[in-house]
Amino acid sequence: MNARTQVFELTVESKQLEEVVLSLFHTILFHRTTGKFHYKQEGAFLIGTVGIVETDCDFVDLTYVRCNSTVLDTNLRREVAAFKEVLRSPDGGLQSGQISLEFYQKKKNRWPFPDESIPWEVWTLKVNIISLANEQERQAYREKLGEILSSKIICIVEAMSRHDFIPKAPNQPLLDTVFDTSCPEVQPFLFKISCQNSGPTNASVGTAVGKLLRDTLAL
After folding, report:
1. Given pLDDT bands bounded at 50, 70 and 90, which one contains residue 107?
2. Which candidate, 11, 159, 212, places its Cα nearest to that of 97?
3. Whole-angstrom Cα distance, residue 72 to residue 61?
4. Quick check: helix, strand or coil at residue 187?
């Protein structure tokens, strides 16, 4: 089975990095999470509710919705913080890179063979890190980036509305082959996060953003 893939590319300042990744990945996870399964008997279960939390960003003009799960939020923030460290250059600044959110299911094999992880959906975010010239440009880009992220969130919601493959809910003994059961409040599909450093941002990226902002401010 070939995993569905979706790639976004964004340009951000270093202090915006974590909020940008969290806003997109939390949105994806919100649509790939169910309430906890409460089994009454084999094959019969009730599904709990998924609470929501509205989150305001500090460095981007954006408010997004995430699952009301402290464990899920803490785990995701830890992964995103690790991504930021991966991007850190020897001089202390940040370089460009990418981070992926992969959903998978486990296929149990007979002993002595290990279980297989079969990906079915992968979301990749490529980020270019820039440094803007002054506070006026930063404020303008804060607003512009909020608009860009809003459009990406709409793309995510539209993609989730398509009738694409997602794993079926298994019987209780196999629940952990499809879902992450470690969160006490919710039950996301199994996922893992990976990231890598792509090196210094191409100077042309910062130049293009700077020109865009100067043109915008001149209007």
Report:
1. confident
2. 11
3. 24
4. strand
pLDDT class of 156 with cuts at 50, 70, 90: very high
Closest CA to 12 of 196, 181, 197, 205: 205
Rounded to 5°, the CA angle 197-57-132 comes to 55
The whole-number pLDDT of residue 113 equals: 78
The band of 142, judged by pLDDT with boundaries at 50, 70 and 90, is: very high
| Residues 6 or more apart whose Cβ sits within 8 Å of residue 192 | 102, 104, 117
> Going along the chain, which residue ranges are E strands?
4-13, 33-35, 37-41, 44-47, 52-56, 63-67, 96-107, 116-130, 186-188, 191-199
In angstroms, the CA 41 to CA 113 distance is: 31
Write the secondary structure of 21-50 as one string of H (helix), E (strand) and C (coil). HHHHHHHHHHHCEEECEEEEECCEEEECCC
Q: pLDDT band for 89, please (50, 70, 90 cuts).
A: confident
Rounded Cα distance between 96 and 12, Å, is 10
Q: What does the alpha-carbon distance between residue 179 and residue 46 come to, in Å, rounded to a whole number?
A: 15
